Amino acid sequence: MKIKNILAWTFYLLVIVGVIYANHVMTPEAHVPKKEDTAPTEFSAEYALEHIQKIAQQPRPAGSAYNKEVRQYIKSQIEGLGFVVNEGFHTVKHKYEDRMIDVYNITTTIKGTDNTGEILFMSHYDSVDEGPGANDNAQGVAIMIETLKILKNSAPLKNDVTFFFTDGEEYGVLGSTAYAKSNNLEDIGLVVNLEARGNKGKSMLFETNENNYEIVKEYLAASSKPYGYSFLNDIYKLLPNYTDYEPFKKEGVKGLNFSYNEGFEVYHNASDTIESVTLSSVQHNGLYATELAEHFGNIDFQSKQTEEKAVYFNLFGYHTVMYKADYNLILSGIALVLTILVFLLAIKKQVISVTNIRTWLITAVVSMIAIFFMATLIIACIAVYQLFSLVAVLIPIAIGLLVVTIMTFVSRKFKLVSKLANRVKILTILDIILANLLIGFVLTGLCTLYLPNSHYLFAITVILQSFTLSIQLACNAKGTVAFLMSFVYIIPATLILFPLLYVIGLSGGIVSSPFVIMVLFITVPYVLPLNFRFQSKAIQHNTKMPVHH
User: In the chain, what are the domains?
Assistant: First the structure.
């Protein structure tokens, strides 16, 4: 490779890394003010830590003696602030075991001056059996106690604000389900649930109600550090997880669900201790609670009724882009027109090879199937080990080896790998980009129909890349000019797509790595630079490349 090309690729990689790093710098962790410098109406995670130290000294699963101690502590804090404690007792069935559980829900309400809809803040005070749950979810309980104190010292709000400390969440959202069944939910204007699925990182909005446009719009107006991506709603539906918001969402209650998720290794185990808590993460959740209480406490919920969905995402730092999901169809149309235009120009310029495009499509599909198979095998091994024993893991391993052996035999028999490898060697960047534009448009169409929250990931990147590519082809841009023009789509596409990889990586730790690789196969071509000097030998020697059929 020539020195000039090496420098070009080095510059390209530096830009990609620089954009990601700059975005990280522009999205700083929440500042934690010192206790002594905090006004009575301001939140400080240092105050919240004092409650966490009282609550998370040991595991407190529902029905345990320490769970009762923590419940008494929460009640004493509420009463000490001069508020009335309401305790709801329910005997319910354990979701995962054949036994009954007694759960005790705690609520207290601050009455508003002119209520148009109740705001319900939620956090569960129980923990898993395996760990003290300092992050999951003592921090949420501590934040609610501190928010209650702040509201006491603040001007009265128009709307009622209820603080709901739930029990039995870890055994299958038992407390919140019982509450939802035994109370009238029609008067609830908004549910705000505070969670943690790790011990550090920025807290993100990962779930909302379905018709969420007005609620998300108000959330963005309220929060000083809004952080969230609408595609998280679609990913969360695919995960085997649940929170206390679940029974409310099923009944159509509007809600905002927040969680910080880095440090997944402490989640649901003995490592979730007081020492593991990161104050900046608690501060971010605390800012959500206090700012949303003040903002939604004074809005008219009756005027915020809507059947419209929102698409939203952080683009650079805490700057958030939001628009109605109704525009998805328009964006899909633009993507279609520009994709067709690119292919027409590529045909006119005779720089398209149907054979090469087909080769990359086959390569991408085969690779993702192989990676998915490996991911399924790894997850099966982990599941079998957790449910049975290490010896039992030999069964999925044996099945995996059998499948690999059969596929290897078939591949060698018909020389499939060697044939595909020979075709891949002659692929150019343009071949890969054109093929991936087709993949992107198909995904855009599928998202339009089934995953509207994720639509922007593919629609906007396809539009940006096809628009730039059409100009490059129309103007016969080559060499350095074509290379530099590529950054018109590379920089915004990086900002849009990187959070998808980041979130998938956080969702399951090392187990999610195969899925990250699968997504990379689809997303990397959207940030590849185009330099027509990198085309096939036929073009480099000024020989016209025929259009293959």
Answer: 37-308 (3.40.630.10), 327-540 (no CATH)
